[in-house]
Amino acid sequence: MILVASIITLLLGAGGTAFYYKHSANSALKKAAEEAEIIKKNKIVEAKEKYIALKLEHDNRVRQDEQKKLQQEQRLQQREQQLNQRQGDIQRAQNEIQQRTQQIEQQQKALDFKAQDIEKMNKLAQQQLEQLSGMSAEEAKKQLVESLKDEAKTNAMSYVNDIMEEARLSANKEAKKIVIQTIQRVASETTVENAVSVFHIDNDEVKGRIIGREGRNIRALEASTGVEIVVDDTPEAITLSAFDPVRREIARLSLHQLVQDGRIHPARIEEVVAKVTKQVEEEMIETGKRTTIDMGIHGLHPELIRLIGKMKYRSSYGQNLLQHARETANLCAAMASDLGLNPKKARRAGLLHDIGKVAEEDTDLPHAELGMKICEKYGEKPDICNAVGAHHDEMEMETLIAPIVQACDAISGARPGARREIVETYVKRLNDLENIAMSFPGVIKTYALQAGRELRVIVGADKITDKDTELLSFDLAKRIQDEMTYPGQIKITVIRETRAVSYAK
Fold first, then answer.
1. Rounded distance, CA 8 to CA 418, Å?
2. What is the pTM assigned to this prediction?
3. 267-273: long-range contacts at Cβ-Cβ below 8 A with a sequence spacing of 24 or more?
4. What string of DSSP letters covers 82-110?
5. Cα angle value 399/400/406 (rounded, 5°)
6. What is the DSSP pairing of strand 198-200 with strand 237-241?
7. Short-list 260, 255, 196, 250, CA closest to 225
8. The domain made up of 319-420 is a member of CATH 3.40.1010.10
9. CB atoms < 10 A from the CB of 7, how many?
10. DSSP string across 350-412
């Protein structure tokens, strides 16, 4: 019974459980169906709203497109109206042009008829003039051209002379004043040092000792110094010949010490020459330093200082190069100060302007360009280098210091007593002056005066008129300036005179 009761209880529990689960499943299905229906309705509503929004957007776009089309049609109509107006204007303009062209053609025809009539009248008048004057039209034209040419040339010369005279009185007045004041402030003695080429001895017995046995002493001296020593019959003198003035000075000092010491043999010669060479090098450096200190120039490279000292032993046309450099530097500083420029830079450029003459490089460059390269090599500023390189017009002047250096170099070299000129060169320059003057037509005689600084030209009174003398002096000065090289300036005086000579018997 217990077992049966247990089985019945189990069956009843199982049936209740099954019924509960079945009832729960039906409720869940029903609830899911309801939720699905709600979702479906929501989706339908969203779809309708989206459709309505898209339709409104489409309608707006269609409306905008229609407005744009209307605006474009209006613009096209306006453009069409404007084009029609322009076409009408062009048509009217063409009609006016045709009318004016016809008028111009008619006027041109009338002018052509008048020109033919005028040409006929001119020919008749020309024929009548030729008959009256007895001269053809071409001859009259040539005569008129010649007279106008002479008149124009005379007027031009007078105009040129007036301008030149006015320029001399106005433009050069202050320049001359500055140059004169500068020269007065920096005036120096006119005597110049000469490069020593003769060694004086007390008696001729020393010559034999200098020559030595079979000439060994003189050969050793020439080999050590690089100087040719000429021992001839000249009493109490030995000639030293060398292109380098420094070597010539070393040879002179070495000979002086050897003669004073009395011991003259090859070993002693080499010892003395080496010692003197060292002394001369030290003297050059000391001279360069003393010069830069005296001139107030600072910051120079040691090699430039040595080259400045080397200038002491070099001369140019008989003028000591160091003295010329110092003089040019002082002139540059004074002139730059008067002109309102930097006097220190001008003094520096003036001192270095001939540094290329003592350069130890073997080159074919002119000394101005070589000096510029040396200054560039040792750190000088570009304006100083340009002034050094351009003081002989071998390159373009880029600063105001350059023409000052050029002018002061000419002043220092051209003053009286500064330089000596070789006789042959001097005579040739005078002959060239006279020959150039004699090459002009109408010149009878020429005289070069005042060491070639004035040229007097005598012309024939029957060959040249008074007006032509001005033209001759102008042409002669221009030709001398173009063809010759000379210091300073040359005055050309043309003399035309008539002399009547008779004898009373």
1. 160
2. 0.47
3. 269/217, 269/220, 269/221, 269/224, 270/220, 270/224, 273/221, 273/224, 273/225
4. HHHHHHHHHHHHHHHHHHHHHHHHHHHHH
5. 100
6. antiparallel
7. 250
8. no
9. 10
10. HHHTTGGGG------S-HHHHHHHHHHHTT--HHHHHHHHTTTSSS---SSHHHHHHHHHHHH
Which tokens in the block code for residue 62? 């269609």
Query: Which pair of tokens denotes residue 19?
Result: 């019924």
3-state helix, strand, coil in the chain (%, to 5): 70, 5, 20
At residue 487, does pLDDT exceed 50? yes
CATH of domain 195-295: 3.30.1370.10
Nearest CA-CA partner of 339 in 284, 404, 253, 424 = 404
Cα 137 from Cα 123, distance rounded (Å): 11
Contacts of 197 (CB under 8 A, 6+ apart): 239, 240, 241, 248
Residue 117 tokens read as 């009539």
What pLDDT does 394 receive?
79
Distance separating alpha carbons of residues 355 and 325, to the nearest angstrom? 9
CA dihedral 134→136→142→148, nearest 10 degrees, is 60
Helix axes of 321-338 and 266-295: crossing angle, nearest 10 degrees: 10
Q: What is the pLDDT of residues 190-226, one digit of tens each?
A: 333 344 457 777 776 777 777 777 778 778 888 888 7
Alpha-carbon distance of 63 to 310, in angstroms, equals 103
Q: How far is CA 170 from CA 68, 142, 174, 404, 478, in A?
A: 82, 42, 8, 20, 22
Q: Out of 2.10.109.10, 3.40.50.2000, 3.50.50.60, 3.30.70.1350, which CATH number does the structure's domain 424-496 have?
A: 3.30.70.1350
Count CB atoms within 10 A of the CB of residue 415: 17
Residue 33: predicted pLDDT: 84
